[in-house]
Amino acid sequence: MQTIEDSALQARREGAVLHLTINRPEARNAMNAQLLEELIVAFEAVAACTEVRAVVLRGAGGNFCAGGDVKDFARLRRQEAAPGTDPVAAFNRRFGTLLELVNGVPQAVVVVAEGAVLGGGFGLACVADVTIVRNDASFGLPETSLGVIPAQIAPFVVQRIGLSQARRLGVCGGRFDGAEAYRLGLAHFVEYSDAALGAREAQVLAQIMRCAPGANAVTKQIMLAVGGEPLGQVLDRAATLFSAALNGPEAAEGTQAFVEKRLPQWAAAGNVETGEADVR
């Protein structure tokens, strides 16, 4: 995906890292149909792109994402539906598809959140592998205070911070800052300046690049299976995956690098020249 002037999503490659920037600053990066589809296309392509090892998602103009675009909701309500169809439900479920995609891609996903992190933006923060926030970011699940529900977001909030806190936020239309997001376990790091935010992002990406990409992908696969199937079944498959990893090329290279006191090839190659991301 190349940066296009009228695109709701900008993309650039820096080595093995793909930077995606939500680009609707005039609307505080609220989620409309165009942005939703561009994000889905991008993450579908990312999932199949072995050259990308990490994705950083952020918002332009000082906000991450202020939730759903109210103008789009109004348009959907006015839209004449064909018999047996429900455009509002279809649009809402499409956002769930995006959250499933971001949650499940084999690459590490890093969200850098500042400003508004509401509704859909809240959901995206919940499905990142690493979420870094500004202390003064504004988090919230405002849906119930507007008479609607966080339908696609709610399951991922429960997975992220647990049922008890998720219920409280849901029924209270919870609003809180980045420091509280860190306390709740929604965010992994909270920073108090732009410089600190950038430094933390660089540190996290450096740590990701020291890990073997295949091992990271399989580790995510095992962790995401927990709670969705019997534990014994998860452990049986994990044992098989461990055997495959131990006998695979990454383990051979990692072991050899350790013996030779050098970086493994994947870590040494973590900072290649900047290139355009072909994830159209």
Automatic annotation (TrEMBL):
Organism field: Rugamonas fusca
Xref: Pfam families: ECH_1
Protein name per Swiss-Prot or TrEMBL: Enoyl-CoA hydratase/isomerase family protein
Keywords from the UniProt entry: Isomerase
Record-stated family: Belongs to the enoyl-CoA hydratase/isomerase family.
One record GO biological process: isoprenoid catabolic process
InterPro entries per the UniProt record, alphabetical: ClpP/crotonase-like_dom_sf, Enoyl-CoA_hydra/iso, Enoyl-CoA_hydra_C, Enoyl-CoA_Hydratase/Isomerase
GO terms for MF: isomerase activity
PANTHER family: ENOYL-COA HYDRATASE, POLYKETIDE BIOSYNTHESIS ENOYL-COA HYDRATASE PKSH-RELATED
